[in-house]
Amino acid sequence: MIRSNYHVHSNYCDGKNSLEEMVLAGIDAGLTSMGLSSHMPLPFKNDWTMRESSLDNYFKEVTYLKEKYSLSIELYCGLEIDYFIDQNDISPLSKKNISKLDFTIMSIHTIGSTRSDNVYYIDETQNNFAQGIKKFYKNKPRDFIEDYYHSIAQMVLDYQPDILGHLDLIKKFNPEHFFFDEKDNWYKDSVIECLDAISETGTLVEINTGANLRVPGVGRYPSDWIIPELFKRKIPITISGDSHTVTGINYDFSKTEIFLMDCGYKEYGMLKKGRWEMQPLGI
Ligand SMILES: [Zn+2]
Ligand SMILES: [Zn+2]
């Protein structure tokens, strides 16, 4: 049984439930270690991350909940931090706050010019993503996707976050190969090159089960064919829900655990008393 989840949103950002509701759902689901990880505020206008003015309250509330539920669950304070392809970097606000966190998740969600408000998103709608590719990549999805995987690799090498968020988020709006075909050699090469870079670090790749709950048919991030490639490279994993509701707190964990064991994995990363330890799968 999977006993942890470090990718948990709340109504501090685009999650639907309060931090406390998410914690109680985690306890109910039998989790013994859980990370809260709202979206770090962004340096441009948007409607899905935390406001900068809420950061202090967020830290205070997580500290309060850690103590309140300390007998039932280990809680950790994190944030999902954005890396910007056009800047090859994270925001100054992220850098300033990293030291306050128990752990970090780093992800890429944006396409376009993050120094202005001229930003599009990989994961908002298919149309918005397509517009971003049209505007900044001359309507060539392949050019963007290659850039995306290079940037993921650079982000992990430069910052070595505890967890890499949703490795192949770019497949979210790709039904019937709208943007690309995962079977194309250029696509596979981009992913493999990225995994080779990640394997030089200690960063955990998250097996993100929440994708399918939000867009049925997407499956997990990363795609099934990538898991044996991770295993071959001895890349450590953690299992997370990218939970935006209480029902997503352990969504699809059981099936995912079986699949990971079929791929050869025997353990996953879990925070225990503040340190990452490997927890056996299937127990
Ligand atoms: Zn994300
Ligand atoms: Zn997330």
Could you please describe the fold and organization of this structure?
34% of the residues lie in helices and 20% in strands. The protein has 283 residues and is an alpha/beta fold. It has a single domain, classed as TIM Barrel, CATH 3.20.20.140. The strands form three sheets. Strands 1, 2, 3, 4, 5, 8, 9 and 10 form an eight-stranded mixed sheet that branches. The structure holds zinc ion (ZN) (2 copies). One zinc ion binds at residues 7, 9, 80, 242.
Cα-atom radius of gyration: 18 Å
**Assembly form of the protein:** single chain
CATH architectural type: Alpha-Beta Barrel
Main sheet specs: 8 strands, mixed
Within the CATH hierarchy, at the fold level, what is the topology?
TIM Barrel
Distinct ligand kinds: zinc ion
Strand content: 15-25%
Q: What is the highest CATH level, the class?
A: Alpha Beta
Number of domains: 1
In CATH, the homologous superfamily goes by the name: Metal-dependent hydrolases
Class by alpha and beta content: alpha/beta
Tell the overall outline: globular
Number of helices: 9
Overall residue-averaged pLDDT value: 97
Helicity, as a percent range: 25-40%
Primary descriptors:
283 residues; alpha/beta; TIM Barrel; two-stranded antiparallel sheet; 9 helices; 20% strand; globular; binds zinc ion
Summary of the model, kept short:
34% of the residues lie in helices and 20% in strands. It has 283 residues and is of the alpha/beta class. It binds zinc ion (ZN) (2 copies).
